[in-house]
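Issue: ligand-bound run for nickel (II) ion - logging full I/O for the record.

Environment: standard queue, default settings, no custom constraints.

Inputs:
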Amino acid sequence: MAILNILNYPDPRLHMVAKPIKEIDATIRHLIDDMAETMYDAPGVGLAATQVNQHIQLILIDTSKTKDHLQVFINPKIIAKSGEKEYEEGCLSVPGIYESVTRADKVTVEALDRDGKKFTLKAEGLMSVCIQHEMDHLLGKVFVEYLSPLKRNRIKSKMVKLQRDR
Ligand code: NI
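Outputs:
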């Protein structure tokens, strides 16, 4: 396994749209293992393939406190959503920034697991937020895009400066 490089906002590659995965082969499983190691090392509760510069529909989430409940979503689709909830979000691609975003309170997602088996999950709370946040990455969307242009530009400048000073 290996720790992968995470793209940082405002890297334009974070805005690429991910393609569906046609076949879950050894290469995909290898990427899942590397992404899991990268996410736990960061540490984070979710990671989308987009963030490691792989533009395919794959996201990983583990919201457990014990960090031993990895959930893999391949080609995820939200088939139902309800309610509204505001949650303070962060992102491994926008380190150190936490801002409130309003999203659906509950979502039902359909996806394939790492063995290619289809499953349906009803999620609420942090899990629901994570699914929506990570699925946005697959569409090339970073959570700061929900903020006002003023706030977003401030974050952008901060990130650019941070990367320049590194
Ligand atoms: Ni993120």
